[in-house]
Amino acid sequence: MGLLIPKMAAEIRSHGNGENFRNCSESPRTGHQTLHYPAKFSMATIREELIQLAITNIQQGLCSIRSAAEKYSVPSSTLSDRLHGSQPQRQAKTHNQRLSPVQEEFVVDWCLNEEKSGRAPSRSQVVGFAQAILAEGGDRQPLGARWIDRFLRRHNAVKTKKSALLESSRTKDSTREAYQAFYRRLEFHIRDKNIIPANIANVDEHGMQEMETTAGTVIGSSLTRRAYTTSSDTTTWVTVIECGTVEGVRLSPTIVFTGASLQGQWFPPKAELEVDFLDWKFDYSLTGWSNSQIALKWLKEVYLPQTQPQGDEWRLLILDEHSSHTTGDFMATAWLNKVQLVYLPAHTSHKTQLLDRSVFSALKSYFRQATKALASFTASAAINKRRFLHCYRDTSKLGMSARNIISGFRNTGIWPLDPSKVLDDPEAVLESQALPVRPKTPPPEPRTEFWTPQKSQDIRTHQQGVSEGMEASGRLTRTLLAKAGKALDAKNAEMASLKAQVDHLTKELESHEPQGRKRVKENANDKFTRIEDIIQAKEDSMKSPKKKKKKTQQDSQEVKEAEEIIVDAVEPGGDGGAKCPIVGCVRLWGLVV
């Protein structure tokens, strides 16, 4: 929404009354400036801004009431009334609101605190918390259906927006102290071992389905609301280990297929393997996930040889605290080869893992676009694996680009070292606070003619009743009653919050019960399969297709004996039943009399 006002942007900035203006633009032809408001601002809000600007100019002696009214397009009578003490309509009718301004400000502060704690409330939760405050003051009537909308219009500090799910463990561990400790540790090792940027790398693994697809925006008929696209039925899991350096160099990827062994028919022809996949590493596991043996092989056969420094320099590898990265063999191998391991804080990879933030999201988006055209084709497991390799080869060149890798190091503040990239991010640093839950609403109580005031509205009601037939109360009395009402509102809001926190802490204590643990079974350590072995297996699979088994003389004799046993069993007086255990079942079914 824009409002054309000549030469006003400078006045708004100089008087400090234009905080609600989003930005302004000037017409090159007329010199007029357009002030742009956020979409949620109504015309009433804009009109009030103009009135405040006009009053400021009048009070500073810059113009008269009439000239200010003409300049800002507001009635002169309104300006005159405001200068003589009248209030804006919204403020003048605050006594008609269910919650007082003090209580609503308390609700606003609660909403902001909950968002910082990773528990941004929904509309219904805000209504429930407001009703809990009212219940402390004796008001047990439900709020109106549109109260939340009017509440949001009255308070520009909060608004409705989309939320993203975050695991509870990430919320609890994403603290300022955890991030600060990580960056201090990172800076210490870089300085202590004089590690140069070229020797700093980050490794991470990500998983996907072989033919993973997703829904998105498409173009179709204007007569229907949505279009349906086919998704693949293949859910076989594949894990990919990727690593990048500060200089944007990508190390050889490691592909972990689901299976009991690698099969030659899974891979493309020899010409493609020798050109596009020569430096790739392939392995397998029963689940398709990486494990401690695969991680150790990756360290020995990918990272150490491909990042060999010049001379006797130290290297630094940043990785998460996955169990496969914290085994004794893994850490000892790294230390003996002068590799300093720096682990990311637990459950903070959504902000500190640079490959997650700047690489994998783009890579998976490209991958899903590439597999979308193949999703409708039913294929064997071998063909799906070959398609996966083709799609990942093409899309990883775009996702794992040098630009994205360098951007990831910069955005996470790892290099150049800048902790403020994360510490100043309000979505990264979450404060763990007690969650106020709505208390139970007490049952309604009968009200007599005179009652003990529980909130500011009760005091105003008493004042009006006492003032009937009498002269208006003095200014001192009104001020005293107003302060008493404000104190009651603040106390009611505080009591509602404290009761909710006690309820939450009680549930928190009950939830802390011992949990069992399971240790991952270790397997024998193997080397990565060489590309030459894969090529040989591929050629062998093509030379020896599956053929129909020929019957031998021994097979024919066994079939003949089985037929004689069955015939003897079904004939009266036959003793073949002793030789054929199936006969008992046949008689049980009533097929043999």
UniProtKB/TrEMBL annotation:
Query: Which InterPro entries does the record cross-reference, listed alphabetically?
Result: CenT-Element_Derived, DDE_SF_endonuclease_dom, Homeodomain-like_sf, HTH_CenpB_DNA-bd_dom, HTH_Psq
Q: Where in the cell is it found?
A: Nucleus
Q: Where is this region: Disordered?
A: 76-98, 436-460, 536-561
A molecular function GO annotation = DNA binding
The question of whether Phosphoprotein is a record keyword is answered with no
SMART domains recorded: CENPB (SM00674)
The record's listing under PROSITE patterns reads:
HTH_CENPB
Ranges in coiled-coil conformation: 481-508
Q: Which UniProt keywords apply?
A: Coiled coil, DNA-binding, Nucleus
Q: What is this protein called?
A: HTH CENPB-type domain-containing protein
Q: Which GO terms describe its cellular component?
A: nucleus
Polar residues bias locations: 76-91, 451-460
Q: Which residues form the HTH CENPB-type domain?
A: 91-161
